[in-house]
């Protein structure tokens, strides 16, 4: 980085904006020396300070540094042995030390330190000067006078002076009254540090004493009467003693300050830095800036809606607004060619990127909506007409000299900004030179941004995938630039359109059009078509984005409506369920009260079960009947009604009543059981017998839908226990005598938890493992209690 680049990017004007916002000479001196840093840690610390200070200033208003005087002269005198400071200088240093101690204490508070840790860390470096402050505080009055209480001796001397002056004043007034005819005025005054009375010159002999002068008219003589000469002498002596005591006090205070000179300088340095940081924070607030994200590893540049702060400051009095630019370059694209019409904003785009980079590395926030920036070791710029008559340099010569120096010095990570690269000479040679210059910087690894009107340079950029073409917009309808930067497409120069806007005669424009080289004209026309296509795509993109947002909003509304309706449905379901359960409970209690014997109790339990199932079927979304387990393959043999069969799982024989697919209903005595085909064996006698008649006495009927086997293989232990418990309730109420629980072998966990459930279960009379041919240890046969 060099002074020429700083001047080109108007860094001094930026520093002036910061200086306008400091509150003390300490901060002004720090602001004047403000320069970009290349140390990533220093940059991050400075940005932390600015960010925290912006919040602190908004919440607390600042550090109270307004009114601090410049202490440099006083501090320089403190370094000279035998020198005493003036009272006003001591008062200024007292204010400096006092402000430092208040700042140190205020930022050290626990709540403040948690909210502003970097500020608190900086304030903690202020030395503890409370002892010095106690020694000097209150001895110098705000006007620079020594306070009477600065020492007991001074208080005594001044007390005597006051008393003696009062006595002398009364004495002189008495003389004036006695000699009133000789008095010019009835007053007492002081000449040469001594009390005198004004006497008319023609009556001078009437008042013996010492003459201390005449008035300008000569009509009044100031006389010190003889009786008060000794008193005046005493006043002079007391005043001399006062001056000696004041000199001693000043020397003592100067000595105390001199002993802590290094710490006072440290205090001044920290307060100066805090004042500068507060000025940065105010600048950030005034221009609506954001903290940039800095990276020493990546060279990505992202500026979202960035503004040039100096241009914005210049436009504020007129009420005009800066058109923001959005700018992006990633690690794979470190060269950008910006083209477009004259006065379209190309140079402003260059300066905006350059100034934003310098601001970030100075610890300033950036005037943008968002910002990602690398830490550049160099920022080099060649912008504007730098011809010099005294140095015998033309525009082109000055331009090439600057580019040559940049090429010699460049050391990435570096940001190179070149305005109108290769301009000022023959267009063909200039275009070739421009391509060569940009390509050289690209291969050198520098982040390079240039502006151009050369079509060959635009074409070269389009042919290199790591180079970005960009353009500033030009409104063909109004023939005016929009100042917006568009990436991905080169721009036409629009020189003839601008000339028309500047009211150049049409004859000249027509002749110029006729002289344009056909290839160049076609290139410009092609660029215009590309621009129109890009604008159409952008318009479609915006339309799609608006449609996407509308769809998202509609989806959100539908989702909200669905949630509302689902909540209403659930509330309705829960209310209906509660009502049905109340009815079921009431009916159950009524039935149970009417039970007379165990047979009626069994029938009542079946009625309760039917009521519960009916209730569940009436409720929308109610619980579904659980599956009874996975069927096993059936043996390929026929079974017909009237066949005698043996149910292996029960160990009982019965007569087949009906066959429905794979389900076979078997009558065993007064009970009917539904069994699967693979659980049946042929009985000893297979002759068909009519089913026995049911006994006349009431007996518990087996529910037609009753399952006598439950399969819990694959369930968790708690799920299996719950399922088996419910299954036992249904089987018991249905009048079953023997049921099977299929749990599989596995690790034995399900077998163990099922056994724990069956042990002591109120419906279980006994249980055991099934026969080896009927499942063995993988199945438990349960005998239920009789009513």
What separation lies between the terminal Cα atoms? 102 Å
Largest sheet: 6 strands, mixed
Instruction: Trace the largest sheet across and list its strands.
Output: 10-11-12-8-13-14
CATH class of the largest domain: Alpha Beta
CATH topology of the largest domain: Rossmann fold
Radius of gyration: 52 Å
Total strand segments: 23
Label the structural class: alpha/beta
Helix content: 40-55%
Domain count: the total is: 4
Mean pLDDT: 82
What is the 3D shape? flat
Description:
- The protein is of the alpha/beta class and 787 residues long.
- The protein has 4 domains: 21-129 and 260-286, no CATH class; 149-254, MutS, DNA mismatch repair protein, Chain A, domain 3 (Orthogonal Bundle); 295-505, P-loop containing nucleotide triphosphate hydrolases (Rossmann fold, 3-Layer(aba) Sandwich), CATH 3.40.50.300; 644-784, Ribosomal Protein S8, Chain: A, domain 1 (2-Layer Sandwich).
- The strands form 5 sheets. It has a 6-stranded mixed sheet, sandwiched between helices. A 5-stranded antiparallel sheet has the order 18-17-16-15-19, with no helix packed on it.
- Helix 6 (87-108) runs antiparallel to helix 8.
- It starts with a helix and ends with a strand.
